[in-house]
Each structure stands twice: as structure tokens, then as C-alpha cells.
Design goal:
Length: 399
């Protein structure tokens, strides 16, 4: 590494799970490499989902990104293909120790666009003390969940993006992964059933849920004593750690739709660490990325500072599980079967626009078939964006 002083800037998201581990790893990396300083800035969770990584890559060297941006990244070249800058053996270890589809989620067009430093999917959460107070057990089936919701003890996130991810989950759990065809999101039969089941449950929770993201749901569960169970929301191991919140949450696999059936399949989330194509010190940025994603860091420094690791060794580690009331062991099966949503260029358009119509249906009811047609129109528009880009790329290659 060069002896000159090198300063890198990074952008992550505004939560203890998103910011603190990056600040801690940057501090330690600078101690190991005194000529390097790394500063991290943060943006809101909504900005994290919405703001273009192309814009961020103009201003930052390191980016913590959401995997649906992979196709966009491949098209724009705004971030670097890490397979051209990191050792093959290291990437092979990352792939072999992926949590579910986390590693694959950042692979697109033959390249690896980010390292999966954080793994997450919607999982179930409970307040064991409140369930015990009411003489109740963690629900195992959808019918048991509905019965618990009838008692006013259930909450989950219903802002547009989380609503869409949960709609995907219902479709997957009914046996059909969404967005697998060019012209429709899901078959009418499965789509109607998914929407009706989703609305039946959503009608039983407080209307405040329609304004909450997962963090806000977990804060409501831990700061008040009125909510005992969340059936699905992107998991945050922080809330299972002593001292983080007023009350501890325990986390679980999802309910099954039928007694004795397979638990539901949720929609993969998590975050990846990417390097801007504008970075002037790629070798240093790559070394830092390798440090953060390494199993040793993921199991200790990264986790101990609030991170939710992306390396399988950390999910199976005795230390991380002891400190989080077995969050990782309990929810690993949920991660391992989670649905990998589309990442083609254009899908961000669908993701940005499809959640609100579903949310409106959950709040007010309506014609499920008409809603599915509305989603299909948005979906076809997003696919046309992909096709148009492919034509531009092909024309450029022929010039």
C-alpha cells in the first residue's frame, strides 16, 4: 500500500446496524494502515432504497447498496466489478459461505458488484414476556396468526416497499415465484389468493402499521407493551441483544400456511459493500472491503458493533448467537430459502411504483384482478426498459 495519506469516503444507511459497524471497521482498518482514513456518512432507510447508486458513486468511494441495484450497476458501470479487483480464493470463500442467495444477489452479467456484508429477510419476532403474560405461544400456522391478530397483539410493516415484498412472499408461499415471465407478475389464480390472504391479515392490525417500516415496528414492539408478535419484517438482530432496546425481542422462522406445512418464503434483503468506479484508490478500497467481509471480522468486530453479518460462519458462530438469543440459528432456515427478487435494469421502476397500489388495496379493498392488471402494466413497462437498454447495448457493440 502507498505511503501517501489516502482518504476514502463511504455512504451507508442510518441505523445502528448500518452505520456503527462501518465506522468501527474503518477505525480499525486505519489503525492497521495509518496512512489510510475512511469516513462514513449515512442516509435514511427510504433513501437507501430509492436514491440512485449512480448519483452516490459520483460522491463516494465506498457504497453500501441494496442488491436490486445490481442490474443497474452492470448497465451504468457506476461501481466496479469486484471479481477484477479481489482474489479469486477470497471470492470463492464468500460464495461458498453465502447466507441463502446473498452472494448471488450481487452477481449480474458475469460479474460480482458487491460483497454481501449483511444478510436479512423478513422473519418473525415476538415479545416472550407478553406472550407468557397472555398465556399464548408463538403461532405456527397462518390460522393461529389470524387468531393472535384478532386479539390486537400483532403488527408488521406496511409502507409501500414492505407491502410489495410481503406480496411476493405470499405468492412464493402459495407455490409461484413472482416476476418469472415477461408479461405478468404472477398468475391470476395465485395473485388473487395472495392478495385476499394478505388483506385478511392486514385488516386485523392497527392502521399505524401502514406508516411503519420494520425498524418502526420493532421500536413499537419494544417501547410499548401492546404488541407481542410480528409475523414478518426484515430482521434486525440488534433488538435481540441485551441493552439495545427497552425490551428484548426473540426471532423465529415464519408460520406455515397449513398445519405441518413448510414455513412461508420471504423476500431476501440485506446489503452489499461496493466500490465506486470513480474511486482513485481502488487497491485500498478493495483491501478494506475484503477486511470487512472476511469471516474473522464478520464474527467479531462487525457483529460486536451492531452489524448483522453476511458470512455463514458468523451465523453459525457461538458468540454471535449467545449475544443475540440465538437470532442467527433461529432465522437461518428462513434466509436459506428466501426468494431472490429480480435485479434486471428496469426492475427498480417496478419496485418503486408497485407497492402503493397493493397498499391501497390492503387499506380499502377492491378488485383483485384489476389490481393485478395494474401491476402487470407496471411490470411490462419495466421489462420494456430492460429491452430498450439491451437494444442500445447491442447497437453500441456493432459500431
Amino acid at each position: 500500500m502507498s505511503a501517501e495519506h489516502i482518504h476514502l469516503k463511504g455512504i451507508t444507511w442510518n441505523h445502528s446496524r448500518g452505520f456503527v459497524p462501518m465506522a468501527a471497521t474503518a477505525q480499525r482498518f486505519s489503525e492497521l494502515h495509518p496512512n489510510v482514513s475512511i469516513t462514513w456518512e449515512k442516509r435514511s432507510l427510504q433513501q437507501f432504497a430509492d436514491e440512485s447508486i449512480q448519483q452516490l458513486a459520483e460522491r463516494f468511494d465506498l457504497l453500501v447498496i441494496d442488491h436490486p441495484w445490481a442490474g443497474f450497476a452492470a448497465r451504468t458501470g457506476s461501481i466496479l466489478p469486484l471479481d477484477e479487483h479481489l482474489p479469486a480464493a477470497f471470492l470463492a470463500d464468500q460464495e461458498a459461505n453465502t447466507v441463502g442467495h446473498s452472494y448471488e444477489s450481487y452477481s449480474f452479467s458475469g460479474h460480482q458488484w458487491a460483497l454481501p456484508i449483511d444478510a436479512a429477510t423478513p422473519v418473525a419476532a415476538s415479545r416472550p414476556d407478553l406472550l407468557a403474560k397472555h398465556g399464548l405461544a408463538v403461532p405456527q400456522t397462518f390460522d393461529e396468526l389470524l387468531q393472535l391478530a384478532d386479539r390486537g397483539l400483532v403488527a408488521f410493516a406496511l409502507i409501500p416497499i414492505d407491502t410489495l415484498m410481503s406480496f411476493y412472499m405470499f405468492c412464493c408461499s402459495l407455490g409461484e415465484d413472482p416476476c418469472q415471465r415477461e408479461d405478468e407478475v404472477v398468475s391470476e389464480a395465485v395473485g388473487v389468493q395472495a392478495l385476499q390472504m394478505f388483506r385478511e391479515l392486514a385488516s386485523k392490525v392497527d392502521a399505524a402499521c401502514f406508516q411503519r417500516n420494520p425498524i418502526q415496528v420493532y421500536e413499537a414492539m419494544t417501547q410499548t407493551d401492546s404488541l407481542a408478535y410480528c409475523p414478518f419484517a426484515y430482521g434486525y438482530s440488534n433488538y435481540a441483544r441485551r441493552g439495545y432496546a427497552r425490551q428484548l425481542l426473540h426471532f423465529h422462522d415464519l408460520v406455515s400456511l397449513q398445519p405441518g406445512g413448510t414455513p412461508m418464503r420471504s423476500t431476501l434483503g440485506g446489503t452489499g459493500l461496493a466500490i465506486s468506479a470513480k474511486c482513485q484508490h481502488v487497491d485500498v478500497a478493495a483491501a478494506y472491503a475484503e477486511f470487512v467481509a472476511s469471516p474473522g471480522c464478520q464474527q467479531t468486530l462487525y457483529f460486536d458493533n451492531g452489524g448483522q453479518p453476511g458470512h455463514l460462519a458468523a451465523w453459525q458462530d457461538a458468540h454471535t448467537n449467545q449475544q443475540s438469543h440465538d437470532y442467527f440459528r433461529a432465522t437461518l432456515p428462513t434466509l436459506q430459502r428466501a426468494f431472490l427478487r429480480p435485479r434486471y435494469h428496469g426492475h427498480m421502476f417496478f419496485q418503486d411504483h408497485a407497492g402503493e397500489p397493493v397498499r391501497q388495496y390492503l387499506m380499502h379493498g377492491g378488485d383483485e384482478r384489476a389490481l393485478l392488471q395494474q401491476l402487470n402494466q407496471l411490470y411490462r413497462e419495466s421489462r420494456q426498459m430492460q429491452a430498450a437498454e439491451a437494444q442500445v447495448t447491442e447497437a453500441a457493440a456493432q459500431r
